[in-house]
Design goal:
Order of helices and strands: HHHHHHH
Helix content: over 70%
Number of strands: 0
Radius of gyration: 19 Å
Strand content: under 5%
Number of domains: 1
Largest sheet: none
Shape: globular
Structural class: mainly alpha
Number of helices: 7
């Protein structure tokens, strides 16, 4: 059960990394430094004071930069690979006592994949906002992403299994909407007799 909770925690934090790169890492650092989350061997540096200061600074800079409408699109170019790396880091830092092949499969495919999918959905929302509002609604999108990253990070730390279910539901909704946007809604085609 501890392994399942660790996987759920890692994937929940990875998904949050797709919304904001540094928020889940900061949340993990706070939880680990307070003794609430146990880190895998070799990852204790995340609980250090230096990591806490660095992640707090990076989070503040990221949040501030996303509040600027023209800068948020430029940041998405950098944030996408950074989100994947942060998702992998968050997953790797909490997974213990797993065979290396299984651990790194979960880290790369699970953590990196979930972070990349969440980031992709975030970029798509910002593009739609930019197209339909000329970027005026982008700060609202950025604020909702920030609150989403904070809520998902907290949920992953406090209730990892609930966070994992939330991530799965989020991805189902994103894929359903992406499918509708790409293929459109198919209306019923008239029968041949209706044309007569």
């Amino acid at each position: 059960m501890d392994t399942a909770l660790a996987i759920a925690l890692g994937l929940g934090l990875a998904a949050a990394s797709g919304l904001r790169v540094f928020v889940p890492l900061l949340a993990l650092s706070i939880a680990a430094s307070s003794g609430y989350v146990e880190l895998a061997p070799g990852w204790s540096w995340l609980a250090s004071g230096a990591a806490l200061v660095a992640l707090s600074t990076a989070t503040a800079l990221e949040v501030g930069a996303y509040a600027v409408p023209w800068l948020d699109h430029a940041l998405d170019v950098v944030a996408t690979p950074a989100a994947v790396l942060a998702g992998m880091l968050a997953s790797a830092s909490v997974l213990m006592e797993l065979p290396p092949l299984l651990k790194w499969s979960i880290v790369i495919v699970g953590g990196g994949g979930v972070a990349g999918l969440t980031q992709g959905a975030s970029v798509l929302a910002r593009l739609k906002s930019g197209l339909f509002t000329g970027g005026l609604a982008n700060p609202i999108v950025s604020l909702s992403e920030l609150f989403g990253a904070i809520a998902l990070s907290a949920l992953a730390i406090l209730l990892p299994m609930v966070a994992l279910v939330a991530v799965v539901l989020l991805l189902v909704v994103v894929f359903a909407r992406a499918g509708r946007a790409r293929f459109g809604r198919r209306g019923s085609t008239p029968s041949p007799t209706a044309r007569v």
